[in-house]
Design goal:
The structure is a single chain. By secondary structure, the chain is an alpha+beta fold. It has 2 domains: 60 residues, no CATH class; 49 residues, no CATH class. It has 1 helix and 8 strands, in the order E-E-H-E-E-E-E-E-E. It binds zinc ion. The site of zinc ion has 8 residues, from loops.
Length: 130
């Protein structure tokens, strides 16, 4: 970008392209200084864009992960989930292996049609005795 020697407008000496300040009189080459500043700004802009797209990606993934999903796709490994029934009720439930049904503690649920992840319990426990 700034690959050529530049002549100082104040004293006329040729200067190294890596320096924006004249090595003899200290005069600042405004054009070079501006170019360097622009390069820095471009770099910052690129970093900000990348950060934004990362945030957008994480946000979209979270959005996707917390959508209601058909109950057929729910994990049946005993994980507690938020479930939704055909009657419009919400429960915190999990799959009961023995009775082969979605269940809240002490009772099975009928007509479960959707689920979404409950997420970790306070303290970071993924599972909880029920
Ligand atoms: Zn100079």
């Amino acid at each position: 970008m700034s690959g050529e020697n530049w002549r100082c407008l104040a004293c006329g000496i040729m200067n190294n392209p890596l320096s924006t300040t004249c090595c003899i009189c200290g005069n600042v080459d405004d054009f070079l200084a501006l170019q360097n500043e622009n390069a820095t700004l471009r770099q910052q802009l690129a970093e900000a864009r990348e950060k934004n797209s990362t945030i957008a990606m994480v946000f979209n993934r979270l959005l996707e992960e917390t959508k209601w999903q058909p109950i057929e796709t729910a994990p049946k490994d005993g994980t507690w989930l938020v479930v939704f029934t055909a009657l419009g009720s919400c429960f915190i439930a999990r799959w009961n292996q023995r009775h082969e049904e979605w269940a809240v503690p002490g009772s099975g649920l009928a007509n479960v049609i959707y689920w979404k992840p409950l997420g970790p319990f306070p303290g970071g426990e993924a599972d909880h005795a029920g």
